[in-house]
Amino acid sequence: MDKKRISRTIITPPVGPDRPGNYDFEELAEAIGEHFKRLSYLGGGGTLNPMLHQAVCAGTVEAGLQRSFEEGVQEILAGGALGFGELSCEHLSFNPFDPIPPHRPIIPTAAAR
């Protein structure tokens, strides 16, 4: 990193609820270990993202799913993640077989109804 003048690298977990070998922030935190000053990570690709897929497929956000999502957000932040990624809520996709279409109406949460 020094040779390439990189001060910090941000790592994001893979996206997709059915992706083989799915992992999230816990594994990234463990892998980074003592190098946290130069390596940061995002969380939610392996945990929050499947919940987004579930809501899109259902066409609604159930109260239990919303609670689980909010709890997951807090757990990821408490685990030291810098932010959230890779989430397919809003994304650019050129794949016609993508399970989450890039343009669709916003799904109202239970609190917004």
Descriptors:
113 residues; alpha/beta; three-stranded parallel sheet; 3 helices; 3 strands; 31% helix; disordered C terminus
Describe how the helices and strands are arranged.
Blueprint: E1 9-11, H1 25-32, E2 39-44, H2 48-58, H3 63-78, E3 83-85
Parallel strand pairs: 1-2, 2-3
Give an overview of the whole structure.
This protein is of the alpha/beta class and 113 residues long. It has one domain. The protein contains three helices and three strands; from the N terminus they run βαβααβ. Strand 1 (9-11), helix 1 (25-32) and strand 2 (39-44) form a beta-alpha-beta unit. The protein is globular, with a radius of gyration of 16 Å.
Number of helices: 3
Report the uncertain regions: 106-113
Q: Strand arrangement, largest sheet?
A: 1-2-3
Work out the radius of gyration.
16 Å
Strand coverage percent: 5-15%
